[in-house]
Amino acid sequence: MKVRDNMKSHLLLAIIGTFGVMIGAQTQEGFISLDCGLPLDESPYNNSFNGLTFTSDSNFIQTGKNGKVDKDVFDRFGKQYGTMRYFPDGKRNCYSLDVKRGTNYDIVVSFLYGNYDGRNLEPSFDLYLGTNKWARIDLGSRPNGTRHEIIHKTKSNSLDICLVKTGTTLPMISAIEIRPLGNDIYLTKSGSLALFFRDYFSTSVEEIRYADDIYDRVWYPFFDSPYKQITTNLDINNSDTYKVPKTALMSAATPKNASEPLLITWTPKPSNAEVYLYMHFAEIEALEATQKREFDVILKGNFNHSGFSPPKLELYTLYTAEAVQCDSEGCNLQLVKTPKSTLPPLINAIEVYTVIEFPQVETSQSDVAAIKNIKATYQLSKISWQGDPCLPLDFSWENLRCNYTDASTPPRITSLDLSNSGLTGSITQTLQNLTQLQELDLSNNSLTGSIPTFLANMKSLSLINLIGNNLTGSIPQALLDRRKEGLVLKLEGNPDLCTLSSCKPKEKTKFLLPVIASAASLLVVVVVVALIFVFRKKKVPLDLNTPTSMTITDGRQASQSESSILSKKIRFTYTEVQEMTNNFEKALGEGGFGVVYHGCVNGNQQVAVKLLSQSSSQGYKHFKAEVELLMRVHHINLVSLVGYCDEGKDLALIYEYMPNGDLKQHLSGKPGGFNLSWENRLKIAVDAALGLEYLHTGCKPPIVHRDIKSTNILLDQNFQAKLADFGLSRSFPTGNETHVSTVVAGTPGYLDPEYYQTNWLTEKSDIYSFGIVLLELITNCPIIQPSREKPHLVDWISFMITNGDITNIVDPHLHQNYDIGSVWKAIEIAMSCVSPSSAGRPNMSRVANDLKECLIAEESRIGERQDMESKSSMNYSRDSYTEMSPKAR
Ligand SMILES: *[C@@H]1O[C@H](CO)[C@@H](O)[C@H](O)[C@H]1NC(C)=O
Ligand SMILES: *[C@@H]1O[C@H](CO)[C@@H](O)[C@H](O)[C@H]1NC(C)=O
Ligand SMILES: *[C@@H]1O[C@H](CO)[C@@H](O)[C@H](O)[C@H]1NC(C)=O
Ligand SMILES: *[C@@H]1O[C@H](CO)[C@@H](O)[C@H](O)[C@H]1NC(C)=O
Ligand SMILES: *[C@@H]1O[C@H](CO)[C@@H](O)[C@H](O)[C@H]1NC(C)=O
Ligand SMILES: *[C@@H]1O[C@H](CO)[C@@H](O)[C@H](O)[C@H]1NC(C)=O
Ligand SMILES: *[C@@H]1O[C@H](CO)[C@@H](O)[C@H](O)[C@H]1NC(C)=O
Ligand SMILES: *[C@@H]1O[C@H](CO)[C@@H](O)[C@H](O)[C@H]1NC(C)=O
Ligand SMILES: *[C@@H]1O[C@H](CO)[C@@H](O)[C@H](O)[C@H]1NC(C)=O
Question: Where in the sequence is the signal peptide annotated (predicted)?
Fold first, then answer.
C-alpha cells in the first residue's frame, strides 16, 4: 500500500544535514562502532553525519577477508557501508566483543552486499547472538541491504556475534553498532527485543539519531492522511527514563477529525509474535484553563490505560509491562478521547518490538576464559575455535568435548586434544582452570620445560598424553601417586625427560614398573591385533577409533577404550543404545532397513535411533555407507548423525531428532490436518533443494543421494526441511567420467527412467526424483495410481497441461490460497526436472534459485494481502522496515 512506499523513501540510513555533526560534548562511552572490513590504516574515522567514531573490526575477529562494494554502490551508501568482511572459510565465524555483563544493549548489525565479489549473487546465511540464532539474513532482492536491531541483556563480559554459512554463498557483514542503554528501560519478562519499528510522528523527512538521541536509536518520521500535525518550539523535558530525543517529541499527531479516535495498526511478523509496545507522549500545545486533553489508550484485547493526560512539555512513556499477542487481524492501537476531554488525543512517538527467546545457555564462563587464554597462549588458529566452545552442538569446537548435563546447566569442557598442533613453550598454567577436564592430549608437539605439578591436582583428570614432546626434568611425585590411583599418563618420546629409574633411584618400584609397563603394552598389542582379526573376519570395520599402543600405566588398565575416548564420542555400545531409547520404548516409525526409536543422549538431546533389522542382507552395506557419508558431510539441510552403534549384529544409527516427521505425513494430513500452506511447501522445497545442491556441488567428489522422496525429507521443530537416509548414496566419479554404472536402486515412482534403462547414475537422477517430490508438493496426488487415466503422476500432469485443465492439478487443500504465478513457475520447474532425458534437466543450483523466486513471489503476495486486509492507517512490515536505503546525493 501507499503507506509502505512512503516509508521506504523515508528510510534514509545516513542523516543528511540538520541534525548532523553536532556537539561532541555528548559522550560515546561504551559505544562500539565497527566498520567491518575497514583497512587498519583508515581506522578510526568520524562519520560525516553525526561524528560517531568508527573503527576497523580487525581486532575483534581473526578470520574473514576484507571486501569493498561496487563503486556506484559505494557512492550511494557512503563509507560506513562501503567495506565488509566476508568469510570464505569455516562454518561459523564470530566476533568477540568486550561488553559489561548484565547490561541492556541496543545491538545493530548491517549487511550490504553491493556485488563486492563481482558475482552478482546475493548471499544468505544465519546470524547468531552467542549460542542462539538471532535471524536469517537473506540478501536476495535486497540491493539496499538490511539491518537488524535487538535490545539484549548480556549474560557475560563478552558478546559473540556469529555468522553461520548455511548454503553455498559466503556470509558477510558491513557494520556492527552496540550502544549501552539504561538498565531500567525496555525490561522484558523473558527474551530479548527485536526492533519492529520506531517512529516519531512528523511530516519531516529526517531521521533522528545520535547525538539527539543519546542512545543512538534511529527514529524514522511517520505520518498519514487521517492525522493532523501539531508542533512546538518550546523545550521539552525528556529526562524520563526512556530519554526520547527532544527533536522527536517536538511534533505530534492528532486525528484530523477531532471527535474520531487516533488509530495505529500494524501486522506483526509472525502474526502471533509476542509484542512489546512503547508509546511516548508530551503535551506540546499551550492549553487554556478551560481546555483539557484526556484519552484512553487501548490496544485491542490487551491493554487499556484510561483517562490519560500527557504532562505538559514533559516526556511520559506508556508501555506494556508484559508481552502481548495481537489477534489474527493484527495489532490495533486506539487513542480514544474521553467525554471529559475538550481536545483530541495525541501521540509523539512509538516503538514496537517483538520478543526473541534465546533459550540456549553458554559454556561455563571460567572454562571459556581458560580455553580462550590457552588459544591465545599457543597462538592456535583452528578455524572452528570461534564463539562458544560447546554450543550449539553443530558448531562446537573441534578437538574438545564437553559435558552437557541438561539444557539449563552451562556445559563444561571435559576433554582437550591439542596433539599435532605445533605447540611450543611450556605447558600452560591456565590448563588447571579447566576444572572438569578428564582427558588432556598434548602429544606430538614441541613443548619444553618440565611437567608441572598442578596436573596432579586436577581431580577430574584420568588421562594425560604428553608423548612426542621435548619435555625435561623429572616427573612430579604427586603425579606418580595419581597414576597409582588409575591416572593414565603417557610420556614416551620425550628424549630428555628423566625416566623413573634414572631420576628416582630410591623407590622399590623402580625395577618393577618398566617390566609391568612392557608387559602391559604387549598385552595391548595382542588384544588389538586379536580385535582387528576378529573384525576383519566378520566385515570391514568402521575404523574410526584407531587404537594407539605403547601406554605406560601402572599395569592395571591399558586398553583400547582408553585411547579411543579421545576421539569425539560418536560410537555407542548396544547397552548405551538400549539406555538412550529406554529399552526401545517408543517407536517413531519403520523404514526399509529397520525400526526407528525415540531416544535421548547427554540427558537432554533428543535423538532418533534407527535399529537395523538383522534380517536385512543389504543392511550392513547401507549402514556403512551412511555412517561414512554423514561423518564427512555437514549441512543445515541434511539430517546430522549423532552417532552409531556397530557391535556384532547390533547396528544402529543415531540421528538428530526431527520432531515434525516427514513431508509425506504432512501432505497426507496426518499430524493435525492439512496445514502446509503454499508458502510452507515452497520453503520445504527450497530447503531440500539446498541440501541436495550441497551434495551435488558442495561435496568433493559429488554425492548422488539416490533415494530422494517425500518420506526422506524430514522436518525439524521449525519446519526446516532436511534430507535423510543416505544408505543408497554414492559418490560419483571425478575427472572426465560423467556417470557411474551401478545396479539400479531407489524407490519406484521416483526412479529416473533413464537411469533405470541405462544403469548410468548421475546427479541428474536425483533431479528427477526431486521433480517428483515437487509434483507431490503441488498436487498432493499419489505418484502411481492405476485407476487414473495416466497412472504415473508425470504423465498425468503432462496430459492435464496439454488439455489445458490446469486448475485441477493443484492440491485442493490449498483452497486456492496461493500466488498463481508462483505455482505455475513451480510446475514448470518440476516438469523440467522430470524431463525424460537427463540432458534436459536443470542442475540443482538452478532449481534452488528458481524455487527461491517462487517463494519470493508467494511471500510478496502474502505481504500485499495483509496490507489490504488490515484497515490500517499505518502499516509496517519488518522487511520494509529493515531495508536500508541509500543516502541522498
Ligand atoms: C572524532 O571525534 C572525537 C570525539 O567525538 C574527537 O575527539 C576527534 O578529534 C575526532 N577525530 C577527527 C579525526 O575528527
Ligand atoms: C533501493 O534504493 C533505491 C534508491 O532509494 C530505490 O530506488 C530502490 O527502489 C531501492 N530498492 C529496493 C529493492 O528497495
Ligand atoms: C524534568 O522532569 C524530571 C522528572 O519528571 C524532574 O525531576 C526534573 O526536575 C525536570 N527538569 C526540568 C528542567 O524541569
Ligand atoms: C467526524 O467524525 C464524526 C464521528 O465519527 C462524524 O459524525 C463527523 O461527520 C466527522 N466529521 C467530518 C468533517 O468528517
Ligand atoms: C477501558 O477502561 C475504561 C475504564 O476502566 C472503561 O470504561 C472502558 O470501557 C475500557 N475500554 C475497553 C475497550 O476495554
Ligand atoms: C584461572 O583461575 C584463577 C583462579 O580462579 C583466576 O584468577 C585466573 O584469572 C584464571 N585464568 C584465566 C585465564 O581464566
Ligand atoms: C557431567 O556433569 C554432571 C554434573 O556435574 C556429572 O554428574 C556427570 O557425571 C558428568 N558426566 C560426564 C560424562 O562426565
Ligand atoms: C606425529 O607427527 C608426525 C609428523 O607430523 C606424524 O607423521 C605422526 O603421525 C604423528 N603421530 C601421532 C601419534 O599423531
Ligand atoms: C627438541 O629439542 C632439540 C634441541 O633443542 C631439537 O634439536 C629437537 O628438534 C627438538 N625436538 C622436537 C620434537 O621439537
Answer: 1-25
Local confidence band at 115 (pLDDT 50, 70, 90 cut-offs):
very high
Choosing from 46, 54, 55, 216 the residue with most ligand 1 atoms within 8 A of its CB, the one to mutate for a pocket test is 46
Query: What are 133's strand-pairing partners?
Result: 128
146 lines ligand 7 (CB under 6 A): no
Torsions phi, psi for 394 (to 5 deg): -60, -30
From the annotation, which residues make up the binding site for ATP? 610
Look at the pTM and tell me if it is higher than 0.70.
Answer: no
Q: Is the dihedral of CA 460, 462, 467, 470 positive or negative?
A: positive
Average pLDDT over residues 879-884: 41
Residue 256: pLDDT band (50, 70, 90) is very high
For domain 663-842, say whether CATH 1.10.510.10 is its number. yes
Q: What is the pLDDT of residues 814-836, one digit of tens each?
A: 888 888 888 888 998 999 999 98
**pLDDT at residue 53 tops 80:** yes
C-alpha cell at 740: 557411474
E strands, 709-749, in order: 713-715, 721-723, 730-731, 740-741
Active site residue 707: yes
Q: What is the CATH number of domain 31-183+871-883?
A: 2.60.120.430
Pick the CATH number of 195-353 from 3.30.70, 2.60.120, 2.60.40, 3.90.550: 2.60.120
- Ligand 7 pocket test target in 361, 363, 400, 405 with most atoms within 8 Å of CB: 405
Least confident of 168-177, 251-260, 481-490: 481-490
The Cα–Cα gap between 498 and 491 comes to 10
Can you identify the CATH homologous superfamily of domain 542-656? Phosphorylase Kinase; domain 1 (3.30.200.20)
CA dihedral 297, 298, 299, 301 (to 10 degrees): 160
Least confident of 149-153, 400-404, 705-709: 705-709
Choosing from 707, 725, 811, 850, the catalytic residue is 707
pLDDT at 698: 79
Of 42-56, 172-186, 248-262, 691-705, the one with minimum mean pLDDT is 691-705
Residues contacting residue 786 through CB under 8 Å, at least 6 positions apart: none
Question: What mean pLDDT, rounded, does the chain reach?
Answer: 82
Which residue is closest in CA terms to ligand 5's atom 12? 304
Name residues contacting ligand 4 (CB within 6 A). 257, 259-260
Q: Where are the alpha helices (DSSP H) in 615-744?
A: 619-632, 663-667, 678-693
Pick the CATH number of 370-498 from 3.40.50.790, 3.80.10.10, 2.50.20.10, 2.30.110.10: 3.80.10.10
